[in-house]
């Protein structure tokens, strides 16, 4: 089973990488970009029997830094 | 308008970060993990008038390295 985990910075947490990309897009002449935030994805191929609980534990313990990041788990089937 | 761009390594491209995460998950006792791939997301807040063409151009020119990466554009509305 494929699972995608989306990890993003919590609102209010400074995102220097996003600011750099925003700045670069403006410099390249792309208008109308108001905000840019960078996150990451972890695509897991796991056994079908893997529980939601196990996936959450992976996020809490390794994949996300829950002090500054939110995560969302999407089962892709 | 919110737009999410998912950037992932093309199949076959080595993903050392994914391998490290895979190894760590196994070391922590999570069974049944068969593969791990790490990607990134770029969440843009753009003007509603932004065309698909402009978004594709941003990806091709800055957000993705199309030699080794695929990207997918999702309009979140």
From TrEMBL, chains A, B:
Entry keyword Transferase: no
The UniProt entry, under InterPro entries, shows: PurS (IPR003850), PurS-like_sf (IPR036604)
What Enzyme Commission number(s) does the record list for this chain?
A: 6.3.5.3
Keyword Nucleotide-binding attributed = yes
Q: Where in the cell is it found?
A: Cytoplasm
Question: Which Gene3D superfamilies does the record cross-reference, listed alphabetically?
Answer: Phosphoribosylformylglycinamidine synthase subunit PurS (3.30.1280.10)
Q: What catalytic activity is recorded?
A: N(2)-formyl-N(1)-(5-phospho-beta-D-ribosyl)glycinamide + L-glutamine + ATP + H2O = 2-formamido-N(1)-(5-O-phospho-beta-D-ribosyl)acetamidine + L-glutamate + ADP + phosphate + H(+)
Which keywords accompany this UniProt record? ATP-binding, Cytoplasm, Ligase, Nucleotide-binding, Purine biosynthesis
A GO MF term: ATP binding
Q: Name one GO biological process term.
A: 'de novo' IMP biosynthetic process
> Which positions make up the signal peptide?
none
Main location (coarse class): cytoplasm
Question: Pathway it belongs to?
Answer: Purine metabolism; IMP biosynthesis via de novo pathway; 5-amino-1-(5-phospho-D-ribosyl)imidazole from N(2)-formyl-N(1)-(5-phospho-D-ribosyl)glycinamide: step 1/2
One cellular component term from this protein's GO annotations in UniProt: cytoplasm
Q: How does it assemble?
A: Part of the FGAM synthase complex composed of 1 PurL, 1 PurQ and 2 PurS subunits.
The record's family statement is: Belongs to the PurS family.
Q: What does this protein do?
A: Part of the phosphoribosylformylglycinamidine synthase complex involved in the purines biosynthetic pathway. Catalyzes the ATP-dependent conversion of formylglycinamide ribonucleotide (FGAR) and glutamine to yield formylglycinamidine ribonucleotide (FGAM) and glutamate. The FGAM synthase complex is composed of three subunits. PurQ produces an ammonia molecule by converting glutamine to glutamate. PurL transfers the ammonia molecule to FGAR to form FGAM in an ATP-dependent manner.
Name under which the protein is recorded: Phosphoribosylformylglycinamidine synthase subunit PurS
């Amino acid at each position: 089973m494929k699972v995608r985990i989306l990890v993003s910075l919590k609102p209010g947490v400074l995102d220097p990488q996003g600011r750099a990309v925003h700045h670069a897009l403006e410099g390249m002449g792309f208008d109308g970009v108001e905000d840019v935030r960078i996150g990451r994805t972890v695509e897991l191929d796991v056994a079908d029997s893997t529980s939601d609980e196990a996936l959450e534990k992976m996020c809490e313990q390794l994949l996300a830094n829950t002090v500054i990041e939110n995560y969302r788990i999407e089962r892709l089937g």
